[in-house]
Specification:
InterPro entries: Thioredoxin-like_sf (IPR036249), Thioredoxin_dom-contain_11 (IPR052792), Thioredoxin_domain (IPR013766). It comes from Rhamnusium bicolor. This is Thioredoxin domain-containing protein. This protein has 798 residues and is α/β, with parallel strands linked by helices. It is 46% helix and 13% strand. The protein has 29 helices and 20 strands. The strands form four sheets. It has a five-stranded mixed sheet with strand order 1-3-2-4-5, with helices on both faces. Strands 6-8-7-9-10 form a five-stranded mixed sheet, with helices on one face. Strands 11-13-12-14-15 form a five-stranded mixed sheet, with helices on one face. A hairpin with a 4-residue loop joins strand 9 and strand 10. The chain starts with a helix and ends in a 7-residue tail after the last helix.
Length: 798
């Protein structure tokens, strides 16, 4: 009831009772008078008193609630005002002090406090600077530190090296680059223009090659041709006079391409000519393309777009990023992966794969033609000069020829360096000028020697092994057309991506040259491994046998390499402990020997990518525990995703349970896919497919583990009935058999009779029951009863 209604009610009540109230509004008197009246007026009087009491208390309660609400409102306003005026930042612990990432004696300038502006200013003061942005806690940054220092020691005369800590809290670099998701980041800064990011493998040889290409992104082409063994190269004819805009566009294009392709699959050559419009020619392994200057502008972006659209090669270098990607899947459609650590092997295989689709082509004749055509490319003066000096430099060139294939053009280059020693001159030699041609040639030769020594230190040179079948001729030219099969060469650095080879079952550590060749047939889900040393003859024979379908499918995988992370639940060469229940782990090598044992084998196929397999493992382990007393029953499991098995033992889905009987391995059974994989269903599936004697043993093993007395007695009653059925069946077979078979069946009947009596009178004698089961399931030739009968009634039969 509201306060206005209460006041209105009081106003209506006062006129009716005015004759009972005196001038002082004393209400006690009417109440006492009303109480002295008869019984008929007693109930109304009490109702009036109750209403008057409630009318006095209700206004007081409402007033208190109003006061309380006012106080709460004032309190909330005070707290909100206090919170608004208080703007202190949350109290957090101080960031740890920055510390140097590189050693003090390192030639790398370390800005470990994150001073990125000073670092870039320092880098811009040199011709070329290489900066590593790192995070001290990052494992890849810690691994890159050693490689970065190795590259710095080699290139310190030409490039300055610096490092910036971009993870230090509140540092300049952290505030500017707070959304970098991967460390380290390597960027090369020329003196002019934008920086060039390095996206290749973080190891010293690749970094040195990238920096060398960065210092000379464009090579000058005079009268010589590029290297024969290059995948592709670009020759540009343009005006290279100072201030040429066309040359600046080409230079920017070369740097941008270097950032996109750190492997430098395409080399840029410039042929200086006084032309008004530049012309660009892309030379591929089978054709030459011309840049359409009419349809496209001479700008770096459009030139790069045309190069990416037009470029194709016989071989493809793959550099996985380390994260989840599909770069390898596309290349493995029908590929010939080559895991090599040396350019020589890659060049050899590239030449083989080049003649693979071409008919009437001979590699030897083409290679010989390159050498024989040298005399036609040079003039008579150069040839005479070469003849005069060939004996003088023969010993000097002997060691070079052993290290790498060398053409006559290369011989001429080496010979030109000592022209002054053969022909004396009175002209100024320019020895005091460091940039004179003679001194530059000496510097170039010194750099080649230093590069060779550094490469020899990082990875020693390895020479090709001589093959035993050198006299055989494996001509594969045009074999692709005749066999209607295609191959794509995929090359990977074996020193960096060895784990890809391990997944295919190739152990590169066993190969001297750390190289291997594998053919992957994705359609047939097969791969083939070259077991012989990698050379020209063995690779040709390997490809020829593949086209003739004469290569055996390789079953090698990670498990065959005995990787450290492989889980082996059963140690080899150790006695099995019967007190422990376990499931034996199989691999490719142990699968066939295990399932061919004279035992009933249960194989559980699983995969680490199958989350449902974890629950099935516990179900199978429980079933193995219930059947642990059966010696002729073995529970195993195998990772079908890692281990390669013959086709008849390969499953297409996981989890899968396969049963191999003790006798007749060809009569294997698969657990039905439409039945839930539970302990009762798995045990019932096993009992259904077991032999009669092993099934009886399995039933006894289950009854021994029954806890309740009533169930236990019922279980043994079932075993007794099963024993009687087995005895009856054996007697029928005994009546139909010959004398020799009767002795075998008689031995079986004796053991069944003893077991039946034990089940009926002494089921608790486990050891005695186990001994009878052992006799029942063992071969008769090992039994004493057989030797006793052999000397007796079977004497005439034998």
């Amino acid at each position: 009831m509201s306060l206005s209604n209460i006041l209105a009610k009081e106003a209506n009540t006062l006129p009716e009772n005015s004759h009972d109230i005196d001038e002082n509004n004393d209400i006690n008197e009417p109440i006492s008078n009303c109480s002295s009246e008869g019984e008929n007026n007693e109930a109304p009087t009490q109702l009036i008193d109750f209403q008057e009491i409630n009318d006095n208390e209700i206004p007081t309660f409402v007033t208190r609630m109003l006061n309380l609400c006012r106080e709460l409102t004032i309190f909330c306003l005070i707290m909100i005002t206090y919170a608004a005026l208080t703007k202190d930042p949350p109290k957090i612990s101080k960031a740890p002090a920055a510390y140097p990432f590189f050693p003090k004696d390192s030639i790398v300038t370390d800005w470990y406090r994150g001073q990125i502006s000073k670092a870039i200013e320092h880098a811009r003061s040199f011709d070329v600077a290489f900066v590593m942005f790192y995070a001290p806690w990052d494992a890849e940054s810690q691994a890159a530190r050693k490689e970065f220092e190795t590259a710095a020691r080699y290139m310190q005369e030409y490039i300055t090296f610096a490092a910036v800590n971009c993870w230090q809290p509140k540092s300049e670099c952290r505030n500017q680059y707070s959304k970098v998701y991967k460390w380290p980041v390597l960027i090369a800064y020329p003196s002019h223009g934008r920086g060039v990011q390095y996206n290749g493998p973080i190891n010293a040889p690749h970094i040195i090659r990238f920096l060398q290409k960065l210092c000379n992104p464009i090579l000058r082409l005079s009268n010589e041709k590029p290297m024969v063994f290059e995948d592709a190269y670009i020759i540009v004819k343009l005006n290279t006079s100072p201030g040429s805009i066309d040359f600046a566009v080409l230079y920017t294009t070369a740097l941008k391409y270097l950032e996109k392709d750190p492997l430098q699959s395409i080399s840029f050559y410039v042929h200086p000519q006084p032309v008004s419009e530049p012309s660009l020619h892309l030379h591929l392994w089978n054709e030459t393309l011309i840049y359409p200057t009419v349809d496209r502008n001479w700008r770096p972006d459009e030139i790069l777009q045309w190069i990416y659209e037009s470029f194709h090669q016989v071989t493809t270098w793959i550099m996985p990023s380390g994260s989840k990607a599909s770069s390898c899947r596309t290349a493995y459609k029908m590929g010939l992966p080559l895991f090599c650590s040396h350019q020589r092997i890659h060049c050899m295989l590239r030449q083989i794969i080049t003649i693979w689709p071409q008919d009437n082509f001979s590699f030897e004749s083409e290679n010989m033609g390159q050498y024989l055509s040298c005399d036609q490319k040079t003039n008579q003066k150069d040839c005479n000069l070469l003849d005069n000096k060939i004996s003088y430099f023969c010993n000097d060139l002997k060691g070079c020829i052993e290290f790498a294939p060398i053409t006559v053009e290369d011989v001429e280059k080496v010979c030109e360096k000592n022209v002054m020693q053969v022909y004396k001159t009175s002209m100024l030699t320019g020895d005091s000028d460091p940039k004179s041609p003679a001194n530059l040639l000496k510097l170039s030769q010194r750099e080649k020697c230093r590069l060779f020594l550094t490469a020899q230190k990082l990875q020693p040179a390895i020479f090709e092994k001589q093959a035993n079948n050198e006299k055989k001729d494996f001509n594969i030219s045009g074999l692709a057309c005749r066999s209607n099969k295609s191959l794509t060469l995929i090359a990977m650095d074996s020193l960096l991506y060895y784990h890809f080879a391990e997944k295919l079952g190739v152990d590169l550590s066993e190969n001297v040259d750390k190289s291997a060749v594998v053919i992957i047939n994705e359609k047939m889900e097969s791969h083939y491994i070259l077991k012989s040393p990698v050379n020209s003859i063995t690779v040709r024979e390997f490809i020829q046998n593949f086209t003739k379908n004469q290569l055996p499918r390789s079953l090698d995988s990670t498990s065959t390499l005995m990787m450290k992370d492989t889980q082996n639940f059963v140690p080899k060469n150790k006695i099995r402990d019967r007190t422990k229940i376990f499931i034996e782990e199989l691999d490719t090598n142990s699968f066939l020997p295990t399932i061919l044992q004279e035992k009933a084998i249960i194989v559980f196929y699983y995969s680490k990518q199958c989350s449902f397999c974890n629950g099935i493992s516990y179900t199978l382990l429980t079933a193995a525990k219930k059947l642990s007393h059966v010696e002729n029953l073995l529970f195993t499991r195998i990772d079908g995703d890692v281990n390669n098995l013959p086709w008849e033992y390969t499953m297409d889905s996981y989890p899968t349970i396969l049963f191999f009987p003790a006798n007749g391995k060809s009569e294997s059974r698969v657990f039905p896919s439409n039945i839930p994989i539970t302990v009762p269903n798995v045990v019932g599936f096993i009992l259904t497919n077991l032999d009669s004697t092993i099934k009886l043993h399995a039933m006894w093993s289950i009854c021994n583990q029954t806890k309740f007395k009533e169930e236990r007695s019922l279980c043994f009653s079932t075993i007794q009935a099963e024993t009687l059925t087995l005895i009856d069946q054996t007697l029928r077979d005994w009546r139909k058999s010959n004398k020799r078979q009767k002795q075998v069946l008689l031995h079986k009947l004796k053991q069944l009779r003893q077991l039946h009596l034990l089940f009926a009178h002494s089921p608790q004698k486990h050891q005695l029951t186990q001994s009878y089961f052992k006799k029942l399931n063992s071969k008769l030739s090992h039994s004493k009863d057989y030797h006793h009968s052999e000397n007796g009634s079977c004497k005439d039969e034998l």
